[in-house]
Amino acid sequence: MQSKQVPWKKRNTKFEGAEYRDPVPGKQSALQQALMKFADCRNGYVINPIVGTEFDNCDEGYEYYNLYSWECGFGIRWGKKRWSEKKCKNDQNRTKRYQSGQEFYCSCRGNADPNVKTSSSKTNCKAMLRLYRTSDDGWIVGDHISEHNHPLSETCGEKKHWPSHHHLDKYTKDLIRMLRENNIGITKLYTILGNFFGSMQNVPATKRCLKSVCQKINREQAEDDIKKTLDLIRDLRKNDPGFLYSVDTDDEGRIKTLMWTNSRSRMQYEHFGDVVSFDTTFKTNLYDMPFGLFVGVNNHFQTVLFAGVLMTDEKTESFKWVFREFASLMGGKEPKTILTDQCRAMEVAIAEEWLGTVHRWCKWHVLKRVKECLGQKYTGIKEFRDKFHMMLNEMLTIEEFESAWDALLKEYGLQNNAFLAQIYGTRHKWVKSYFKGVFCARMTSTQRSESANYMLKNILSPACTLCQFIQQYLKMQYIRDEDENYEERRNKLNLKKLATGGPLVVHAYKVYTLKVFALFFELKEQSEFYRAMEVVPGLAYVAEHYDLSRVQRWSKGRYAVQLLDSGTKFSCECGLFDNFGLPCSHILRVSS
After folding, report:
1. What phi, psi does 27 have (nearest 5°)?
2. Does the entry feature the keyword Zinc-finger, yes or no (predicted)?
3. Which of 369, 380, 528, 565 could be bridged to 376 by S-S, CB 3.0 to 4.6 A?
4. Could you report the per-residue pLDDT of 250-272, keeping only the tens digit for each?
5. Do 157 and 44 fall within a single domain?
6. How far apart (Å, rounded) are the C-alpha atoms in residues 190 and 262?
């Protein structure tokens, strides 16, 4: 303990005063005096909080003692405060308070809780610094106990782990908050700060400290989350009158389901909402709520986002509310086709709410089950796998599929396989040939939904709040909209490469986008492998492959093409036009 007597004559004995002392111009601070003294003698510690050292305010005293603790190898914390109190003359029920003292303790002060089984750094260390107020509203060191009952840290790496030696300013904390909001992990965040400060050694905090800071940020963001979410929605509606949302609550007024969309999404749905993919496999948020995403495909074959929905459960009634509200937000329009996984509750809800909508299963979910149930037969035999995929992806007619299915089962002895019998019974939900007359815009799976979910997962932290979730969703939508705007610009600049091929190709060049025209031209080239034969003059034709011996044995080599509506519309038995929206190679052969 310091033995120098404190100059008591300077101590403030009043019951009121200023919060701090105004700095005197030209007067050296306690830190400046310590540095100059060390420069003269160059021994011992640079900082030495002797009794009588003065400060203009309490924070200056804390920083001074903290610098001393860094040199010595320990950490400090704020301790007991002393107050002078006096009852007011005019009101005896009121009391005037004036802080007259402040203590700073070694971080190891106090005793470990015997009921807590985790390790503790508490050693009941008595090291401390006590400050008193002076008569001119400053602060002065009154007592200093320098002895510790524990080992002191020696290296800078050890010293940085004392909480008082973490120095993260407001701007660094804002950077941490921004990175965490975009799902940057603690380790990666730490290395980014290392680049920001020049090296890892210069980062003013440890990785453990960053973890504590991030936890505090999460707690702050979770406070009043519902209020923040409603405030955000209010601001979004103010900036975009077409922004709409719908909330389903339980009997106690708590949110069960929250759905939202904006004016651009609603406009896109009006044009491209015939086919919708819906997936709820994503659950990254603070409340572990399943997130459903309605997506479609535009005229550039890009994914477009129609609406997002957060749900507390995946029951039939919840899905019925989701589909009903989605149609309501979209002006009452229901999609012609919807693609989902094999969720039974979702299947029932779609059947009850959207009577005119064709429900199709995602083929990738079907293939996943095939892989799980057939095991080595599917993964180990390439020929079997290729034939199964061919049935799923390339066969255009029901007759082709049925013939190939029977042949495959016989070839590999799977006629009595229970799983294949089960999925065969639901083939109308996942086999391409059964959707011949159903518009699907070339979508066969929920991959577009899952791709958007993956993108969202990359920018969402696992502990994100409702408010953050909507904000990050809007960021993802902005990125998608940018891609669409880029394609729109390219098309307006007319960057399509005009190929020869007669009036039909020239017309397609004028009306189709770049991506659609490229697909059309592929079909036009495929049409050269067929010859057209007139069956009924002006009404019925047959497109026949030039070399039937080169056609797959399961595949048709001849396709019937009809001319309808007084010659203004073609129809082919392959059904590609109704399914895809582009004329098939058979129609193109006949029309040319």
Report:
1. -80, 135
2. yes
3. 380
4. 888 888 999 999 999 999 999 99
5. yes
6. 37
| Residue 189 is assigned to a structural domain of this protein | no
How do the residues of the chain divide into helix, strand and coil, expressed in percent and rounded to 5? Answer: 45, 20, 35
Does 460 share its domain with 572?
A: no
Structure tokens at 94: 């009121």
What does the longest C-alpha to C-alpha distance in the chain come to?
A: 121
Chain centroid, CA 429 distance in Å? 31
Phi/psi at 175 (5° precision): -65, -45
Task: Enumerate residues 6+ apart whose C-beta is below 8 A from 560.
Answer: 535, 540, 541, 542, 572, 573
Cβ atoms < 10 Å from Cβ of 278: 26
Query: Do the domain assignments include residue 477?
Result: yes
For the residues 72-81, what does the mean pLDDT come to?
92
User: 255 and 355: one domain?
Assistant: yes
C-alpha span between 584 and 561 (Å, rounded): 10
pLDDT digits (tens, 9 = 90+) for 362-372: 888 888 888 88
133 and 25 within one domain? yes
Do 350 and 368 lie in a common domain?
A: no
> How high is the pLDDT of residue 248?
92
Q: How many domains does the chain have?
A: 4
In terms of domains, do 426 and 301 share one? no
Confidence check: pLDDT of 6 > 50: no
Residue 145: strand, helix, or coil: strand
Phi-psi category of residue 24: left, alpha or beta, with phi > 0 → left and psi -120 to 50 → alpha? beta
The residue whose two tokens read 């603070």 is 286
In a domain, 394, yes or no: yes
Q: Element (H or E) spanning 450, and its range? A: helix 447-459
Check whether residue 31 and residue 108 sit in a common domain. Answer: yes
Mean pLDDT of 411-430: 89
- As a whole number of angstroms, the distance between CA 556 and CA 545 comes to 9
Tokens of 375: 């095991």
The verdict on residue 184 lying in a domain is: no
Q: pTM for the full model?
A: 0.74
Give the C-alpha separation, 516 to 580, whole Å.
Answer: 11
Tens digits of residue pLDDT in 241-251? 999 999 998 88
Q: Would the pLDDT of 501 be above 70?
A: no
Domain match, 63 and 139 both = yes
Q: Over 80: is that where the pLDDT of 143 sits?
A: yes
